[in-house]
Amino acid sequence: GAGVSQTPSNKVTEKGKYVELRCDPISGHTALYWYRQSLGQGPEFLIYFQGTGAADDSGLPNDRFFAVRPEGSVSTLKIQRTERGDSAVYLCASSFVNTGVNEQFFGPGTRLTVL
Amino acid sequence: DQQVKQNSPSLSVQEGRISILNCDYTNSMFDYFLWYKKYPAEGPTFLISISSIKDKNEDGRFTVFLNKSAKHLSLHIVPSQPGDSAVYFCAASSGTYKYIFGTGTRLKVLA
């Protein structure tokens, strides 16, 4: 069965540019999460969707970061005016349910490099 | 402030021996703990979990031990195999979807 997929796998951009990172969750998973993993660190929570709405965006570092999930499936993480400090691997995960603790299935990530 | 700590960035073990990976946490509200394994260029994959009502959970070669009073958990892999070579992340949750991850331990199993 298909797992979580993310595109592109690698993205190189210049400081100040706008980027979009896409996540296709496992079919039927209602919950979707974005994490950011910087070099030498573990994944860090950014935002959580239940269906189409962002139920918790407390991990987004600032207002340059925004994510959408318009139809409750695919999600796009958008970063405006990229900075060198945004360079990291951006991981997407999905799960069946949104209540309580449940196993999150991760995609392979998008490695973003801001020059 | 790192709420979940993995103080050993790397560990090397001979094939067939036991691998012990450690994790410490500071938040006493955490009540669910997970271990994820990550190979290069892949996302983390779930390995094993434990609820705070237990002190041990076993799944094949993998066993997780939880010591709530010490706020410490460990993952034991017996016997270790070369295919176990990966980065292992400990994660904790306080009954919600929000996982707090440690910085990971790179395990190398030597053939």
Low-pLDDT stretches of chain B are none
Helix content of chain B: under 10%
Which protein chains make the most extensive interface, counting residues with beta carbons within 8 Å of the other chain's beta carbons? A-B, 26 and 25 residues
Report the total helices of chain B. 0
Which structural class do you get from the secondary structure elements of chain B? mainly beta
Percent of residues of chain A in beta strands? over 45%
> What does the average pLDDT of chain B come to?
95
What composes the largest sheet of chain B? 6 strands, mixed
Largest sheet of chain A: 7 strands, mixed
Strand content of chain B: over 45%
Helical residue percent band of chain A:
under 10%
- Estimated radius of gyration of chain A: 13 Å
Question: Could you characterize the architecture of this molecule?
Answer:
The complex is a heterodimer of chains A (115) and B (111). Chain A has 115 residues and is mainly β. Chain A has strands spanning 5-7, 10-13, 19-24, 31-37, 44-50, 53-56, 65-68, 75-79, 88-95, 105-106, 110-114. Chain A starts with a strand and ends with a strand. Chain B is mostly beta strands. Chain B has strands at 4-5, 10-14, 19-25, 32-38, 45-51, 56-59, 62-67, 72-77, 86-93, 100-101, 105-110. In chain B, the strands form 2 sheets. In chain B, strands 2, 4, 5, 9, 10 and 11 form a 6-stranded mixed β-sheet that branches. In chain B, a hairpin with a 4-residue loop joins strand 7 and strand 8. Chain B is globular. The relative contact order of chain B is 0.34. The model of chain B has no long low-confidence stretch (mean pLDDT 95).
Which SSEs are present, and which pair or pack?
The complex is a heterodimer of chains A (115) and B (111).
Chain A: E1 5-7, E2 10-13, E3 19-24, E4 31-37, E5 44-50, E6 53-56, E7 65-68, E8 75-79, E9 88-95, E10 105-106, E11 110-114
Parallel strand pairs in A: 2-11
Antiparallel strand pairs in A: 1-3, 3-8, 4-5, 4-9, 5-6, 7-8, 9-10, 9-11
Chain B: E1 4-5, E2 10-14, E3 19-25, E4 32-38, E5 45-51, E6 56-59, E7 62-67, E8 72-77, E9 86-93, E10 100-101, E11 105-110
